[in-house]
Amino acid sequence: MSLAVLPSYISRENIGPWHIFLQQVEKVAPLLDKSLWPWVETLRRPKRALIVDVPIRLDNGEIAHFEGYRVHHNTSRGPGKGGVRFHQDVTLSEVMALAGWMSIKNAVVNVPFGGAKGGIRVDPRQLSQPELERLTRRYTSEIDMMIGPDKDIPAPDMNTNAQVMAWMMDTYSMNQGRTSTGVVTGKPLSLGGSLGRPDATGRGVFVTAREAAKKIDLPLIGARVCIQGFGNVGEASARMFAAAGARIVAVQDVSATVFNAAGLDIASLKRYLSEQRTLIGAPDCEVITEDAFWAVPCEFLVPAALESQINQFNAGKINARVVVEGANGPTTPEAEDILAERNILVIPDVLANAGGVTVSYFEWVQDFSSFFWSEDEINVRLERIMSEAFEAIWQLAAERQLSLRTAAFVVGCSRVLQARAMRGLYP
Ligand code: GLU
Asked: Do 196 and 359 contact (CB within 8 A), yes or no?
């Protein structure tokens, strides 16, 4: 690397999600058109990153401080776009990587956004609803200079939802002195949200899995599916797999791993989890160990939780035909090599989970035009974008003998860097 001064976050010690993103860029760089090589460095550096202190008054009168982040990885193709995550393990490295993956993902499905992400290092389960609201509002105020409908548009991610988006929208709007619905997506329907948005990521996961199944002649009817994470993405995709005739044989979340060889009843599992807040004791299933989950024989394994869940320690045990990455960054590069050797197909995050941001794009367009579409229109357009993106990446992978991830990165990085090159350097 011919750099005068190395940025602080590029070091051998910085082995975190950002490092994984850098490795992925490194791998794809030589495959890009030569004309883009001078611009590759753009991808190795986030455009801007903000760390904020988020102090809130707790219900007991004490003051607590949390660390928050908002990162714009790249805005060459349009305003920043990406979710906000509340989790006790959030770090700057993680948010930088998630922002980088958003740049690639948005380019893969060709929505006119750059890549951004935000987060707060907090365990939201420890906060009451009023504390969560104060946290969200203070965070939104602290990142106010970074966001806006034509600047950077946050959305839900892990542990954030339509209510959190409503508070963000209201806080931004109060500070601006006018209602600005397009500043966030994933809002409630009553505040300019879009039909189909809650299920969109899970739907995209299902559509890409279905398209892959067609390519490898794998029938969906009777296919066994294992799902890690039973939140917005995991639950919706489980429901859609089940509706297509597949059997969800194992589900893992933070509370437990449940198994039923004949297939779990997703609706009753969801009901049980929302009432009991744990999967332990759910009807008609057996609790198995966290580790045993990875070895459950299945056709589709859907990691839909945190990063690096499939790693060098469990990749050798996985007994699936296809891994569909509902989460962002669930497979480490070492694990990816192991899966490739074992002939397990991986549908990468930047393609498989792009359904969420695709419908976020629809929501943003609807907010701008104040004209709202039917759920059918949303789902038909989503299906089309996801299956076309899948087909293009499948073709490229076949033509150039690449993995689907590398092919997706070739498409995504090329689109970002073409825009970057066309814009040129200022001044
Ligand atoms: N958080 C989601 C993701 O990782 C959605 C982002 C968005 O809609 O902006 O793709």
From this structure: yes
Same-domain pairing of 232 and 316: yes
Tell me the best of 357, 367, 385 to mutate to test the pocket of ligand 1, counting ligand atoms within 8 Å of each CB and taking the most.
357
Own/partner pairs for 36-40, CB < 8 Å, 24+ apart?
Answer: 36/413, 36/414, 36/417, 36/418, 36/421, 38/421, 39/417, 39/420, 39/421, 40/413, 40/417
Q: pLDDT at position 92, please?
A: 94
* 53: helix, strand or coil: strand
What's the rounded Cα separation, in Å, for the pair 46 and 67? 19
Domain that holds residue 141: 46-179
pLDDT-flagged residues of the chain (< 50): 1-3
| Residue 348 alpha carbon to ligand 1 centre in Å | 15
Query: Do 171 and 306 belong together in one domain?
Result: no
Last-in-domain residue among 333, 352, 371: 352
List Cα–Cα distances, 102 to 97, 110, 155, 348, in angstroms.
Answer: 9, 12, 12, 13
pLDDT attached to residue 1: 46
The answer, yes or no, to whether any atom of ligand 1 lies below 6 A from the CB of 85, is no
Ligand 1 binding pocket includes 78 (Cβ within 6 Å): no
Q: Are residues 115 and 70 in the same domain?
A: yes
**Residues whose CB falls within 8 Å of the CB of residue 290, separated by 6 or more in sequence, listed in order:** 252, 257
CATH number at residue 337: 3.40.50.720
Last residue of a domain, one of 334, 352, 370: 352
366 lines ligand 1 (CB under 6 A): no
Residue (of 103, 322, 317, 121) closest to 216 by Cα position: 322
Atom of ligand 1 nearest to the CA of 361: 8
Does residue 170 sit in the same domain as residue 221? no
Q: Is residue 186 a part of any domain in this protein?
A: no
Residue 117 annotated as catalytic: yes
**Same domain, residue pair 154 and 219:** no
| DSSP letter assigned to residue 109 | T
Domain count within the chain: 2
Q: How far is the CA of 427 from the centre of ligand 1 (A)?
A: 32
pLDDT value at position 14?
58
β-pairing verdict for 322-324 and 345-347 = parallel
pTM for the whole structure: 0.96
Residue 185 in contact with ligand 1 by CB distance below 6 A? yes
User: Does residue 81's CB lie within 6 angstroms of at least one atom of ligand 1?
Assistant: yes
